[in-house]
From TrEMBL:
Coiled coil: none annotated. It is an enzyme of class 1 (oxidoreductase). This is SDR family oxidoreductase. It comes from Kutzneria chonburiensis. Keywords: Oxidoreductase.
Length: 270
């Protein structure tokens, strides 16, 4: 894979952090965003040569404009990883349930649309590009009725965005994919689900999860790394269930009392 410019949103923790490491160690120029965790973002950028961190408020139009003005080069690979979950949405809004509903859609769906729209013309002009949307098994693949309805709606919208762009670009040299992780060991999963469970409930959760384990961020990052290779063009438009099988058997998780957590939203905007 030739050295390329890679933009990764939500890169300071979780899957995003693993993606920054994978692409930087793979020899690419990596630019990643964070919203509030400046210390972690700057430490990661200092550690990995060829990376830069940018403060970014996804879904806010002025922040989008500033980000694209600041980027030091063309984006060849866009990875829409940043998102909010049932707990982290409160970093955006502290008001009503209706305001939280709107934030889910604005951050998780509209923000990736704006990012893709901004980088696509350059990709088409240069004759190559990859867009990977990191959605979730909840909403993107299966229905988890105990979880936040607006969260699932936003992931379904992100999958639709993937399919729509892939259809528009069927004869163009830009590939688009969606990856739908399951229960990944991230700070967002910790806040959205694990922190609310006692020891016995945690044991029960692990017994019911596919493979009886959480997915590691590195596993998801490795899958996305492969999707950005030329060989993956055969999968243009694919929506990949990266949940260890939870997407085909959601009852493994919904069979217990999980409350209203968004446990399958396994990413971070920190």
């Amino acid at each position: 894979m030739a050295r390329q410019g890679v933009l990764i949103t939500g890169g300071s923790t979780g899957i995003g952090r693993a993606l920054v490491r994978r692409f930087a160690l793979g020899g690419h120029r990596v630019w990643f965003t964070y919203r509030s965790n400046r210390e972690a973002a700057e430490a990661l950028a200092d550690e990995l040569a060829g990376t830069r961190a940018f403060e970014f408020d996804q879904g806010d139009w002025e922040s989008h404009r500033r980000l694209h003005d600041q980027l030091p080069g063309p984006v060849d690979i866009l990875i829409n990883n940043a998102a909010v979950g049932s707990q982290t949405v409160r970093r955006y809004v502290t008001g009503s349930t209706e305001q939280c509903d709107a934030a889910f859609l604005q951050v998780n769906s509209v923000g990736p649309l704006w990012l893709a729209r901004a980088v696509l013309p350059g990709m088409l002009e240069r004759g190559h590009g990859k867009i990977v949307n990191v959605a979730s098994v909840g909403g993107g693949v299966a229905t988890f009725p105990d979880f936040h309805i607006a969260d699932g709606m936003s992931k379904a919208a992100l999958v639709y965005l993937t399919k729509h762009l892939a259809a528009e670009l069927a004869h163009e040299p830009v590939d688009v994919f969606a990856v739908c992780p399951g229960a990944v060991q991230t700070p967002m999963l910790q806040a959205s689900l694990l922190d609310g469970l006692d020891g016995a409930e945690l044991d029960d959760l692990f017994r019911r999860l596919p493979g009886r384990r959480l997915i590691s961020p590195d596993e998801v990052a490795e899958l996305i790394w492969w999707l950005c290779r030329d060989e993956a063009s055969l999968l243009h438009g694919a929506v990949l269930d990266a949940s260890l099988g939870l997407g085909v058997h959601p009852g493994l998780l919904t069979g217990g009392a999980m409350g209203h957590a968004s446990s399958t939203t396994a990413r971070s905007v920190a």
